[in-house]
Design goal:
The structure holds 2 protein chains of 2 kinds. Chain A is mainly α. In chain A, the strands form 2 sheets. Chain A has a two-stranded antiparallel ribbon. A two-stranded antiparallel ribbon of chain A has the order 3-4. Chain B is mainly α. Chain B has a single domain, classed as ABC transporter involved in vitamin B12 uptake, BtuC (Orthogonal Bundle), CATH 1.10.3470. Chain B has a two-stranded antiparallel sheet with strand order 1-2. In chain B, a hairpin with a 2-residue loop joins strand 1 and strand 2. The longest helix of chain B is centred in the first third of the chain and has 32 residues. Classes of the chains: A mainly alpha, B mainly alpha. Chains A and B meet through helix 5, helix 11 and helix 13 of A and helix 3, helix 4, helix 9 and helix 11 of B.
């Protein structure tokens, strides 16, 4: 066996081990706290991957994606409470509404330059929050303004109601959702519209000159991204069973997605996952262990991490990590020539 | 915050009072005065964007730094709030200059070929988190006020009352923007700044030190945020996240007026101020915030470059 193919075998082996590890994790990790942290980690990886379709591939900076999380959460919850429709169905309705809203917002704003797009999506997100905070009722549907909605608890595990006693089912649901969304981005990056999208994101003028309808593909990406984001909104609502506008529609939420994407690596497939793997634990553990010592210290650290990563790795951490992984593979397999390994 | 006797972001009353002509005129007066310091807050943001093409998400935090600086100086020395300006302006200028030179410049250099580098936005957001939370660590979360000699005093103009701090705020806004326009138009540095904002590469070829211009523009932007801090001190609360209150407002104002436009920032500020003071007379006041966003979205649909924006920026 030559070193090249040995390297490939080790690479595949490591990936299988990773998959087995991730899928069997709840069997031995019994602490619900850690499981909850992991669930949120996957949720943010999922949301950022969806965000990345616009923020990464289309090359703009959306700062209002919490609006679509909120649309997903509110739609499925309101449908469930008012008419008893299962959140599993409501989630698709929410996704559809989010896609339509995203298209309506995207058509005028995606034509704008970066800064205008970032600020207008941000203002849109804030506008949705204010709207939710000021709405008590829409027809028979209770929104309850700033107080938010709590989903009526159904005793025991109930699949149709999307409610489970233990965290484990949520873990597997979000894990599968994450794998699907990763597959979607991988697929989008390989098909023709995906290339158009990336071309339009990097060099809009040049792509336009070559006859690519940049705006059209960006709007498509936006619709898809919003759709996927809203699905996670339903998940978040079912996981916490209580949400309110400031939390689910807040600016912090939208910003965190952008942070994760940029720390990980914008416009890459694994970037959002790596970003979530790094930034979520930093945020969570700093909050748990440091906020009692000095209020605000954890966010100072968070901010410093952002600044330092952007200073020294402006393209995100996926690049050096891929190189590091490749280096390890070479060491283990004994290859001298470091061939690129796609991870 | 638009009505005279109240201090800070107190919740406005939700009871609809009788709408008279006098009340409307008073609301217009209040709204314009509020709009003046909104516009001043947006001025620094629009200047920095115009030159560096970066939205400074730490702008509100710079304003907070200015407010805390003014607060502590007044609190410890008992100076007149506007005498403090002479200390706060140089302090914030140096702070902004250093911030740009140390933190933002390396990222800008790495992203030289990108016109609007997203990475820089994230860096400024990091600065925002660090500054706001450092203030939280140092000073705690409580809302602080400082009693100055002009707090709560009013001018009377016929039947209408004009709170003194806000009137001075308008004067300071006019002076600052006049001075800024003069500086940009007639001084050598101002011309360099304008040249760099038009075309940074050509400006560099003409012998302008691009990054020095950026440092100075950022310093001026920060100094203006410091001025706003001093203007707000007599009638506003100081707390670590006070910048966030102004951040989103400033973003809306600069997009309304057109990113990079100085008159646009001032007029955008007055528009937002007027909306916030006039609409609560006709509806529940929490809805006015939504009106601001609706107007913003409408402008974006109809005239994306804003009122005075340049087409090349969008």
């Amino acid at each position: 066996m030559n070193p090249g193919s040995r390297k490939k075998t080790i690479d595949t082996l490591l990936k299988i081990m990773l998959a087995v590890f991730v899928f069997t994790l709840p069997l031995w990790l019994t602490s619900p706290t850690y499981l909850q942290i992991l669930i949120f980690l996957f949720l943010f990886a999922y949301l950022t991957t969806a965000w990345n379709l616009v923020g990464g591939f289309a090359g703009v900076l959306p700062l209002g994606h919490s609006a679509y999380v909120g649309i997903g959460a509110y739609t499925s919850t309101v449908l469930f409470i008012t008419w008893g429709i299962s959140p599993w169905i409501g989630m698709w309705v929410g996704g559809l509404i989010a896609a339509i809203v995203g298209t309506i917002v995207g058509i005028p704003t995606l034509k704008l330059r970066g800064a205008y797009f970032a600020l207008s999506t941000m203002a849109f997100g804030e506008g949705v929050r204010v709207l939710a905070e000021n709405t008590m009722k829409v027809g028979p549907c209770v929104i309850d303004g700033p107080r938010g909605i709590s989903i009526p608890l159904i005793p025991g595990n109930n699949f149709t109601a999307y409610q489970f006693v233990s965290k484990v089912p949520y873990y597997y649901i979000i894990l599968i959702m994450l794998i699907i969304v990763l597959f979607i981005t991988w697929y989008v990056s390989r098909i023709r519209p995906g290339y158009y999208l990336a071309a339009g994101g990097e060099e809009p003028e040049a792509a336009q000159a070559l006859g690519v309808n940049v705006a059209k593909y960006k709007v498509w990406a936006m619709a898809l991204s919003c759709f996927l984001t809203a699905l996670a909104g339903t998940f978040l609502a079912q996981l916490t069973l209580y949400f309110y506008p400031k939390q689910i529609l807040g600016l912090d939420f939208s910003f965190e997605l952008a942070f994760i994407a940029l720390i990980g690596g914008r416009g890459t497939i694994t970037g959002p996952v790596i970003g979530a793997l790094i930034l979520r634990p930093v945020g969570e553990f700093a909050r748990i262990y440091l906020s009692a010592v000095l209020p605000g210290l954890h966010l100072v650290i968070y901010g410093l991490v952002l600044i330092f990563v952007m200073l020294f790795q402006p393209r995100g951490l996926v690049e050096p990590l891929t190189r590091f992984y490749d280096w390890i593979l070479n060491k283990v397999s004994g290859t001298a020539t470091g061939k690129e390994v796609k991870s | 915050m638009s009505r005279a006797p109240s201090r800070g972001p107190a919740p406005r009353d939700t009871i609809k009072s009788e709408v008279t002509l006098e009340a409307i005129i008073q609301a217009i007066i209040n709204g314009s005065m509020t709009g003046a310091y909104y516009g001043l807050a947006a001025l620094g943001l629009t200047l920095i964007f115009g030159v560096i093409k970066v939205i400074n998400f730490a702008h509100g935090s710079l304003l907070m730094v200015g407010m805390f600086a003014a607060y502590w100086i007044i609190h410890l020395t008992g100076w007149h709030p506007y005498a403090v300006l002479f200390l706060v302006i140089p302090m914030l200028f140096v702070f902004g200059y250093a911030l740009q030179g140390i933190v933002i410049k390396p990222v800008l250099e790495a992203q030289r070929e990108v016109r609007e580098p997203t990475e820089v936005i994230i860096v400024t957001t990091g600065v925002w988190y660090v500054l706001d939370n450092l203030a939280l660590m140092l000073f705690g979360a409580e809302f602080r006020t400082v009693k100055t000699s002009i707090t709560g005093q009013v001018f009377f103009l016929g039947d209408y009352f004009l709170p003194k701090p806000q009137v001075y705020g308008v004067v300071i806004t006019i002076l600052t923007s006049g001075l800024l326009l003069w500086f940009l138009k007639y001084t050598r540095m101002g011309k360099s700044i304008r040249a760099a904002s038009l075309d940074r590469d050509t400006a560099s070829l003409m012998g302008i030190n691009q990054y020095r211009v950026y440092n100075i523009a950022f310093g001026i932007g920060a100094a203006i945020a410091g001025i706003v801090g001093c203007v707000l001190i007599p009638f506003y609360y100081v707390f670590p996240s006070v910048g966030v209150v102004f951040d989103v407002k400033c973003f809306i104002i600069v997009v309304l007026g057109g990113l990079g436009s100085i008159p646009g920032a001032l007029i955008g500020g007055v528009i937002v101020g007027l909306i916030e003071s006039i609409f609560p007379m006709f509806m529940t006041s929490t809805w006015t915030e939504l009106i601001v966003y609706a107007v913003f979205m409408a402008v974006l649909f109809i005239r994306p470059a804003g009122l005075f924006g340049e087409k090349r920026d969008w």
